[in-house]
Design goal:
By secondary structure, the chain is mainly beta. It is built from no helices and four strands. Strands 1-2-3-4 form a four-stranded antiparallel sheet, with no helix packed on it.
Amino acid sequence: NLDVGNYSGELGTAERMPNGNYVFNSGSQGGGVFGQSIEMLPDGPEVYVQEVAARDYRSFRMSSLYHGVRH
């Protein structure tokens, strides 16, 4: 079990990525003031955190917006 450190009463998702990491979306934080997406390693450390100033229905972690281009 991973502890994301927050709770979303609605608009939450969890996904295991092909590289073994996990992505959690807490779409309604602070009474619906902001949303948060967190990528975590299987043993717990955060890799990526994104906060948006609105409720967030769903987010996706993509390697690139352009086919064939990787960062």
